[in-house]
Write a structure and sequence with these properties.
six-stranded mixed sheet; 483 residues; alpha/beta
């Protein structure tokens, strides 16, 4: 197996202690992916110091000068989309179609965000005094850390690293422990694009050790994190000690409320697409269907039919619709949630099993699962399962449904399916979530702000124009041009 390294100050280097861990393909355990660094705090500190030195130069480049490097990266990313998609499929498990699509979406988002380099608008206000001009300008924040998850190991790093570079920041990049190879491949493209040494630094290792080191390092002025609420809370606590800025995108238990809707087949198709893409391993996946009693029987029937149609298999097989979950621990956790639903009296209407035999014995394959007769306080209705599991909760009316939607610690995304215009407004205004979807599933778009409220998010929304509010700071200038 190939032994991989960190990338710090423009060079590939071994981790302090020279320790490594092995990873396998979650869809084929016979496929060994390599050995990856188990970095320590010293490696994080070295990366932060390198980024800090590079910032002295990178932060002073003109916007179009920074953009030239980024355009080189975008071109390389586009040319390598198929190859990177295959790496992603092997490492994370999602289907090859979803994997290549993740890379091409990254290209699209990069092409948009690079234009922000010349759109760093400030403010100009009239002065209270003669011969004085008052302006407010944006300046780069400094060194930022990009701490990314395993479920979108190409797209999420792009969403953090590229806006940071556009704004004039330098980066310490920490990919997920479960998907470091995608991070390595992205970093190789950054190296090939010719970015100055130290502009982007890659450190790989366990989140438990490295997350603390990143959060405590005083050279790191901002931390953009996507992952669990538990880890996000820890990062925020440690970062606050030295007043580092945070951008946290965390968990979700996203509802779809169905009430007074005339096209239930469309609703079922939209809900299932949002629930089972990437084997349900998305923070914005719909995981709770909340439906009025009068529409519940028909919707449950349609959902059950749809769930049973999915083909589960190895991601490289183009006919596969749902791939494996990311690792054995994730599979075990998901199966425990399904069993808890049985124990609490819910009905497994479809799926509910670990798949076995042939290719299934080589990976971590779980049937897409629909659970009905779920009450709002059951474990499967409260916890973020992060797998191919969808639960249905019946309610008496729209108002009760909206209350159940909000009865969660999370507030990331939510959908409503209704033909009642007044209820649409009630949902838009009353739903406690960062993103609201009306009469379609929870699919976000490339240039729209992305984020949550409550325990789902903290700080500036990512993607699109809001990103610059995280990666820049304000500087206020009073200029008296004549005495």
């Amino acid at each position: 197996m190939e032994k991989y390294q960190n990338f710090i100050n423009g060079k590939w280097v071994n981790p302090t202690g020279d320790q490594y861990y092995e990873l396998i393909n979650p869809g084929d355990c016979d496929d060994k992916l390599g050995e990856f660094p188990l970095s320590r705090e010293e490696d994080v500190n070295y990366a932060a110091e390198s980024a800090d030195r590079a910032f002295a130069t990178w932060g002073k480049l003109l916007p179009d000068q920074r953009a030239r490097y980024i355009y080189q990266f975008i071109d390389l990313l586009d040319r390598n989309a198929q190859r990177l998609g295959e790496v992603l499929c092997r490492e994370q498990g999602k289907t090859i179609g979803e994997s290549v699509g993740e890379v091409t979406r990254g290209v699209k988002e990069c092409r948009y965000i690079v234009g922000e380099a010349t759109r760093m608008q400030g403010i100009s206000l009239p002065s209270e005094r003669p011969n004085v001009t008052n302006t407010v300008i944006r300046v780069p924040l400094g060194v930022v850390a990009a701490v990314t998850p395993w479920n979108f190991p190409i797209l999420t790093p792009i969403r953090k690293i590229i806006p940071a570079l556009v704004a004039g920041c330098t980066v310490v990049f920490k990919p997920s422990y479960d998907t470091p190879l995608c991070g390595i491949e992205l970093t190789k493209l950054i190296e090939e694009a010719g970015f100055p040494a130290g502009t982007v630094n890659l450190v790989i290792g366990k989140g438990s050790a490295m997350g603390d080191a990143i959060s405590k390092n005083p050279l790191i002025r901002g931390i953009s994190f996507t992952g669990s609420t538990v880890v996000g809370r820890r990062i925020n606590t440690l970062a606050a000690e030295h007043f580092a800025k945070v951008q946290l995108e965390m968990g979700g238990k996203n509802p779809a409320l169905v009430a007074g809707y005339g096209n239930l087949p469309f609703a079922a198709a939209q809900i299932c697409a949002a629930a089972f893409a990437n084997a349900g391993q998305r923070c914005t996946a719909i995981s709770r269907v909340i439906v009025t009693e009068e529409q519940a029987p028909e919707l449950e029937r349609l959902l059950c039919e749809k769930v049973k149609e999915y083909k589960v298999g190895y991601g490289m097989d183009k006919s596969t619709q749902i791939g494996p979950v990311v690792n054995a621990a994730a599979g075990q956790s998901i199966m425990e949630y399904i069993q808890s639903a049985r124990d609490e009296g819910a009905t497994i209407a479809a799926g509910g099993n670990r798949l076995k035999g042939g290719q299934y014995d080589k990976g971590f394959y779980i049937e897409p699962t629909l659970i009905t007769h779920v009450s709002p306080k059951m474990k499967v209705a409260v916890d973020e399962i992060f797998g191919p599991v969808l639960v249905v909760i019946r309610v008496g009316n729209f108002e009760e449904g909206l209350s159940v939607c909000n009865d969660t610690q999370y507030g990331l995304a939510a959908a409503v399916f209704t033909d009642l215009n007044e209820k649409i407004f009630d949902f838009m205004s009353g739903m406690e979530s960062g993103m609201v979807h009306i009469n379609h599933g929870s699919v976000s778009e490339s240039f729209m702000p992305f984020g949550g409220v409550k325990n789902s998010g903290l700080g500036t929304f990512g993607i699109g124009t809001t990103n610059k509010d995280f990666y820049t700071a304000w500087k206020v200038i009073y200029n008296q041009y004549k005495a």
